[in-house]
Amino acid sequence: MMNDLNKFFYPKSIAVIGASSKPGTLGYELLGNLIKFGYNGKLFPVNPKADAIHSIKSYKSLTEIKDDVDLAVIMLGKHLVLTAIDDCHKKKVKAVIVITAGFREVGEEGVTLEQELMKKIRKYKMNLVGPNCMGIINTKKGVLMNGTFIKGTPVAGGIGFVSQSGALGASVLKIIEKYDIGFSQFLSIGNKADISENETIEYWKENPDVNVITAYLESFSDPKKFLEICKDVTKKKPVIAIKAAKTSAGMKAASSHTGALASADTVAETLFEQSGVIRVNSVEDMFNLAKAFDRAKLPSGKRVAVLTNAGGPAILTVDEAANCGLEIAELSGETQKKLREIVVPEASVQNPVDLLPPATAEVYKKAAEIILSDDNVDAGILILGPPLMFDTVEITKYICEAANHSGKCAIVVVMSQDEIIADVAKQMPMHPPLFNSPEKAAWAISEMYRYKLRSESPDGKVKKFSVNTKGVRSIIGKYKQDGCYLDFNDVYDILNHYRMPIIETRISKNVQQSVYDANKIGFPVVAKVFGRELVHKSDVGGVALNIQDEEELINVESRIIAGLKDKGLDTKLEGFILQPFAKIEDGVETILGAVKDSKAGHLLMFGLGGIFVEVFKDVKFKIAPLTDADAKSVIRSIKSYEILKGVRGKKSVDVEFIEENILKLSQLVTDFPEFTEIDLNPFVFSPNSKKSRILDARIKLR
Ligand code: ADP
Ligand code: MG
Question: Is the pTM of this model over 0.85?
């Protein structure tokens, strides 16, 4: 039952517990909205003191109602809510919406009350929306439920909207007419004690009344689940979301490079990107895009044609289209010839096609038809600047007809006349998306095109490499202390157990043994300080590169020891790390790492490494476990991808080998969630995978 929200969205009967006959109260407004909007089921106001509210019979208590009740909406004072839940149980109500506020959102006392509420909900096997929410809407004919207390009438359409903020939901419902936003279903999830964005989005996946899903979020209830659900849902229908940036508590304390490079917004950004959810930054963008998805076909390609009666808007549109990655369609000779026959001589018949102000409704419509039927055109932006001498509503309707008949993606832009949009929308229920900004139309088409490409791309797979997990397990067993970095020799072993190419390394106890090790490795060598508390080795002057012979090695190590003494760190020195001096040559220094967020789990990071990592911040994150498609995408989405592919005559590094190592690291943190931070930095990738090497690595435990 967990994700069957039918009882919420399609109830046959609703009890309004706390209905009130006092105008201005929530209990009065909500019941009034249900009646005004024409709810098709049975309504049962419950109020111990009233006989009738809004002229329908009212009940003293829930149990007095003889009929079955599908949905209970509770809007009592917060201390009466728990008893009402008991009544719901007696009445066998399974779906409950608690509008009442004063729970988790008010602090400690409210938290306790919410916990008690949830105990009952679980015990009675009910589902709860809220508390502290604004209600529910379903505009479908035959349901017509406006179970909110908001002023303003919902307009029907194909958009599902789930909102964590009640106030935002209310403000949206106020602008729907102006922006021509057609809702099919709306749910205010409030404190989301039980039903959250996850259950709602999952439910809408299979719901035929919802074409596009929109969400306003302030937090993720369960980021991992969000990722899993949205990855699946976005294959079937678009999901568009707004999320206010918030610091992720889980990563604040990170001390690795990877941790430092993760910003407050990284989890949200990564979740959206990886799940295919389109993120927008304003309510206006969210609903512009949603209505484009709802009312227009997906563009089959990225070639867009612009029709206009004024030059300025067309230029802006073309610029924005190019900015967003669209192409300006080249109209065929035949299209241009056909256009020439109907337009005034001064008009331009090349894309953007400018009909000039005298264009009549008939000319506009024909021109739109001609353009949209050109095989070189995948999508059309049909702009109507304020015409001086014609009825704009009439022209707009003509243009809309052409768009509707084209069978292609088309957006109609009516500039600087919002009232016209509302008029046309009312007169023509099956209209294409109506925008007031041509640039937004271009942007929307580009998002739709990206969505189409993405939904067609094959699902990635999580690969499993054969590795030595036992070896790693026994290393972890040695560490009793929490929050510490592993010794370099253990890091070395772990990477070997996962068959990742850590450079040959020997650990020596003293200078004398270093000389022996260096000879085994072969000069030139690199010497670095070894010590559990000397994790950032360069910072303490503890890295010496390109050491040519024994004499130099002895000098260098003595100098390092003296340097540590000056800093009072000599007691931390446990020995030296010796490695061959790796020539970077045609390799590229990258950083590959992982950091754990308390809610989202491990985020893997890949990007350009070297000493400027934190200056350029050219890194990308993905949530583990990564699929092969995720690994491919993370590599290709960093700006320095060009560098990996070889610039100025350099050969491309072995990109597949990068992929393999990203996936292995993903497997490592998935197998061992106790690793909270990992930096493989630098990880030098070369054209030849055999020459690719990890030169330094850090792993932090728990
Ligand atoms: P830190 O603890 O300061 O990060 P590293 O081991 O990463 O120490 O060494 C600092 C830098 O020295 C690396 O970023 C890399 O550029 C260079 N380096 C480290 N090891 C080698 C090596 N074996 N061969 C060549 N260069 C190296
Ligand atoms: Mg390093």
Answer: yes
